[in-house]
Amino acid sequence: MPIPIKVAADSPEPMYHQIEVQLRGLIVSGQLAEGTLLPSIREMATDLNCSVITIRRVYQDLENEGLLRTRQGTGTFVAAVSVQDRQGYRTEAVKEAVQAAFETAKRVQFTREEMQQLLDETIEEWYPAAANPEKEDL
Amino acid sequence: MPIPIKVAADSPEPMYHQIEVQLRGLIVSGQLAEGTLLPSIREMATDLNCSVITIRRVYQDLENEGLLRTRQGTGTFVAAVSVQDRQGYRTEAVKEAVQAAFETAKRVQFTREEMQQLLDETIEEWYPAAANPEKEDL
Amino acid sequence: MPIPIKVAADSPEPMYHQIEVQLRGLIVSGQLAEGTLLPSIREMATDLNCSVITIRRVYQDLENEGLLRTRQGTGTFVAAVSVQDRQGYRTEAVKEAVQAAFETAKRVQFTREEMQQLLDETIEEWYPAAANPEKEDL
Amino acid sequence: MPIPIKVAADSPEPMYHQIEVQLRGLIVSGQLAEGTLLPSIREMATDLNCSVITIRRVYQDLENEGLLRTRQGTGTFVAAVSVQDRQGYRTEAVKEAVQAAFETAKRVQFTREEMQQLLDETIEEWYPAAANPEKEDL
DNA sequence: GTGGTCTAGACCACC
DNA sequence: GTGGTCTAGACCACG
């Protein structure tokens, strides 16, 4: 599995955006190392079952962000990103999503207890059971 | 301040959606009680500085969801919603946002510890530590 | 003449780039004031005799630069740009071109005198005769 | 240092073009005298860390312009160029670049004064003030 | 082979 | 009406 990216063609979220988010994640988390040659736009388009235009847009957007570097006739590479920037990207994305969740919670007047419980449950679900699954709320 | 809703005209999020989310929150959290008469479409449009078409769409969408009821010539009211539905709405929205946050975290390979710490910080920020956790519902 | 932009279809320079450069110039020089509504992408495409895709790209690139602001269903506007940024854009573009000219001159070993004379001639050509066209070289 | 040419692999400008411009400059300015034997394609490619195809193209383009001559099995030489042509090449390139700079200046509505000052500064920077302007030709 | 540009046309979302 | 996305396919430039 060359590039582990999945797109939901029926999602309201634009394909190009789904791909960008995932590719960005692979890069800033270091799963795609600096200098890695990405699949050609045509290859990627075939893999993900979409138009080359869509992939081109993805690559170009990420190049504009400084995460990719592309050379005509050669291919598209993962750019050199400072460790600092890399960390920035990583945490920024997660923080944003977490803030959004709390906004929603406040909007429907979730109490601290309700939110705490929901988060505890969810973290257990996504990062299953440490050896000693101690509750550390309050 | 009749209806506490704010729209950001320069946000990429469509106006109608910003308004819907907030209005839905006011209803399912009980801040707008059943039977409450909402401002007329024109009034609302003026208040929020947007087109009547936009408000019309909001009212209609929420009516389709069963949260509003329109009486010809009289106005638009908050519909009767079962306590059960109310709770469903509330938690569903928050759960969705929380799931999204965890997806993002996984994508950039946040560890359980990183996520736990971020959540702890954020809950402290949004629900400032009360020495003895009091319910602030309703 | 709504928007004074010209494209040379036979130039090796991509159309989208020709348009971007000119539109950017109109904005940063203040000829298109902040808040101005630009022609719709379809209108512009017809005017300039190119595809809507090409115009869309132009508008989007300039939006990414912060020079335009677009709202779906409404149109594309000249964004608020700080006077500072505006000046930055203006001089940067010219400086770049001037530097390029001097690089070329150095490359073919133009002497200072040759260059000085060429510049004097050219400035006279582009900014014709002040009342007392005094030579101020040396 | 056999041939003083530098290529920026990460520049948007195609390698072949970077090389052509510099090589052309070396020839028309007389830094590479008529009859000089250029490095072989393979050697040049190794030196500049690029493909032989790229160098092949460069040599061929310049041969088409009449600046180089290739002798089967012998190598590539700097061709005989009339003094007149030489001068033509030299000034043409610089004039073009200068025109481009003025176009940019006009586009952002630089005043004559702004342009004059920028040029004065830049010439001072590239041709640092000699008390008595000496020719540094050849 | 690679990426870069452009077309014509379609469908959707928004106002 | 507006902009936003996507397609299928073409042609060019680069290595």
- Name of the top-level CATH class of the largest domain in chain A: Mainly Alpha
Q: Sheet bearing the most strands of chain A, described? A: 2 strands, antiparallel
Q: Tell me the β content of chain A.
A: 5-15%
Radius of gyration of chain A: 19 Å
Q: Structural class of the secondary elements of chain A?
A: mainly alpha
What is the straight-line distance between the termini of chain A?
Answer: 43 Å
CATH fold assignment of the largest domain in chain A: Arc Repressor Mutant, subunit A
Pick out the low-confidence regions of chain A.
none
The CATH homologous superfamily of the largest domain in chain A is termed Winged helix-like DNA-binding domain superfamily/Winged helix DNA-binding domain
**What's the tally of helices of chain A?**
5
Morphology call of chain A: elongated
Short description:
Four copies of one chain form a homotetramer. Chain A is mostly helical and 138 residues long.
